[in-house]
Each structure stands twice: as C-alpha cells, then as structure tokens.
Amino acid sequence: MIPLFESKDVLPSNLGDFSYDWIIENEDPKYGFQTRYSRGASKVDLYLYDAGCLPIPQDVSDPIILSHFQSCIEEITLMAQSELYKEFEVGPIDGLEVISGIRKTTFLHWQFEYLVSDSSLTVDIGRQRSHLLLSSQRGCFSKIRFSYPAHDRDARIRDLYGLLQDWCNRIETI
After folding, report:
1. Residues lower than pLDDT 50 in the chain
2. How far is CA 45 from CA 22, 42, 48, 142, 157, in A?
3. Could you read off the pLDDT of 17-26 as tens digits, one per residue?
4. What confidence score (pLDDT) does residue 63 get?
5. Into how many domains does the chain fold?
6. Is residue 72 part of a domain?
7. Residue 51 φ then ψ, to 5°
8. Residue 87: inside a domain, yes or no?
9. φ and ψ of 71, to 5 deg
C-alpha cells in the first residue's frame, strides 16, 4: 500500500521540472514506498512511510523526528565508511521551510558531497552533491534525497525548492 495515495497510478507524472521514473513498494507497509523523479543528471528519491512509529509528530524538533533523521544520516555515513563514497564531505544540519499554498512545511536538511566509487559504473559521473530532507506530513515521514553534479549547485537549489513546493502541495491536497 502507498501511504496517502490510493495506488501508484495516482502519483504525479511530474514534480516541479522532474519526470517520474519508477516506484518501489515495500512489502512491509510501515516502510511505504520509494519513488524516483529525474531531470538530466539530477535525481530525487522520495520516501513516504510511517516506520511503525505512530503517531508521528508534526514538529521536526520532536525527539522522534530528530532521532529518525539521525538514523538516516548514519545510513549514509556508513556508505561513506564502506568506501562506496569517496572524498565524503558533510555540511551542517539545518532547517528548510517550504511554503506551498497556505501551508508551511519545515524539513530537517543535511547536505553532503562525494565521489562515487562503484566500479560497476561505466560512466564517470564526477563529484556529486546530495541533500537529505525529512519532515512529517499527514502522519507519515516524508524523506527526500536530491542528488546532482556538484558543479551545478546554484541552479539545482532552485530546482530543489520548486520540487519541494510541488511535493508538499500534492501531499496536502490528496
């Protein structure tokens, strides 16, 4: 089951300027789904789930949300420690407010840069920048990972905000 959406057929074909690529529905409903949207070399993975943590508080400063965000960060740093990511550099944790319609949604936000060291890749994708965001929306964790070539930062930040506005608006109007 896809939280908040009746089926994968009702997922938007576009979010901001990004096009729908695929969806993975987890067998365990508490892990919801992961869907990917992309545009050129930029990609965004969206996760909507409850992780069995009901009720999920709305306030991102709540210990439940902060603890879950820290777990998400630890998953990524483990990938760096396993050398899947080379030259791993991290930024600070901060908040990002998104206004969509009349609603304001606050996301916890963390960004990092890395080189991918996966030998199965046949194309050199260069240095990447990723943003990890987490919020609570309509009783679900809303986790987003947005990745793009690091040299293209300024233009992609505008893309990220537009995508977040569209995502928040879609979730709130379901």
Report:
1. 1-2
2. 10, 10, 10, 11, 16
3. 999 999 988 8
4. 95
5. 1
6. yes
7. 55, 20
8. yes
9. -65, -40
> What is the predicted pLDDT for the residue at 116?
77
Give the pLDDT confidence score for residue 1 in this predicted structure.
43
For residues 101 and 166, what is the distance between their CA atoms, to the nearest angstrom? 10
* Enclosing domain of residue 150: 8-172
Residue 93, strand partner residues: 110
pTM (predicted TM-score) = 0.89
Residue type, 77: T
2 is a domain residue: no
Q: Is residue 35 part of a domain?
A: yes
For residue 35, which of 7, 67, 68, 60 has the smallest C-alpha distance? 7
Give the three-class secondary structure for 69.
helix
Closest CA to 52 of 32, 38, 37: 32
The CATH number given to whatever domain includes residue 102 is 3.40.1000
